[in-house]
Amino acid sequence: MASQPPAHEEDSMDSFLDKFKDQKYKGGFSEATWEEEFDKIPMFMKKAPSEIDPEKNPDLACLQSLLFEGKSPEEQAKIYKDEGNDYFKEKEYKKAVVIYTEGLRKQCSDRDLNAILHTNRAAAEFYLGNYHSALNDAIAARKQKQEHLKAIVRGALCHLELKNFTEAIMWCDEGLRIDSKEKKLLETRTKADRLRRTEQRDVRKARVKAKQEQTQREALLQAIKDRNIKLFQQACSGGEEDALDGIAELSLDGLSSGNATGAKVYLDENNNLHWPVLFLYPEYRLTDFISAFHESSRFIDHLVMMFAEDQPPWDVERKYHPNELELYFEDEERAELYLVNAEKTLLEVLQHKRYFVKAGIPAFLVLVKNSPFCVQYLADKKVHRTG
């Protein structure tokens, strides 16, 4: 028969337990944060932090110090290498980079191990898309071990991604001298060679195209020169009236078009110029754009096409008739207007001594002759007739 504890001991135990009935244990986990608290305990951690802060993780820091206690730099570097490899296998490339870096900071004397750490970090950086950093690691690995094949493969792949096709081929050739059957190097060299030939072909095409465009450009400038047409240049508009008289003042930039359509003056196969032309209607603050105005076309011909058959919807008073319209161009330097004879061709007007083509687009004002708006608009302006 089992012996029973003395009555006084039972009373003592009951008294001890009674103390906790009204006192909550203060060291326990809360229901809301117990998972987070568990994750701070090394035994229950799901993942170790990439960097250990002794103040935040004192237990883990203590374990780490025990892990490395008494170990040489080489042994510590190898531990970091293995840990980095584990992260790499889990595709935790950022953490792998951090761990491999810690291994390299040990500055161990094992050149082979250092080459592996650099190569492995290069692989992690590569998968993060940091090709320059990965290439630097591949180069560093080869400084530790010149014929480290994995470093050569990684460096070749980095050069390929960076579009350094010639360098990629050179790295592949160096690796193939070590192992002529290395599959990755053979594939990379084939791809780099194909891309290099494509790039060289594209460069040749671009040079030929640029040469053709330059030839066309020069022919266009010569055609403008032959016609005594002047281009307005902002840099030369400092008050000298004759600054733009010579063709020497023309520049290629003067032919660039600032209009939304991208239309520019061009020279056709018959040596005729076609200009983008802008008609401005100040009364309504509207514009019309003609993308290719033949230099031999008369203004009246365009006005007939624009207004004789279908009146524009904004002309509610139906007063814009071809024979009732006047055209002007503005001499911005002198703040003067010149009346254009609509029977004249575009070329004849552009050859006027006071006409300067601005931004590659001739522009003209269109007004209804003797209309109240026209009279008021011209009242404070000096107007010349072009004849």
TrEMBL record:
The keyword Glycoprotein does not apply. GO terms for molecular function: Hsp70 protein binding; Hsp90 protein binding. CDD domains: CTWD_Cns1 (cd21380). Signal peptide: none annotated. Residues 178-223 form a coiled coil. Residues 268-371 form the Cns1/TTC4 wheel domain. One of its GO terms (biological process) is protein folding. InterPro entries: Csn1/TTC4_wheel, TPR-like_helical_dom_sf, TPR_rpt. Transmembrane segments: none annotated. One of its GO terms (cellular component) is nucleus. Keywords: Coiled coil, Repeat, TPR repeat. It holds the Pfam family Wheel. Belongs to the TTC4 family. This is Tetratricopeptide repeat protein 4 isoform X1. The lineage of its organism: Eukaryota, Metazoa, Chordata, Craniata, Vertebrata.
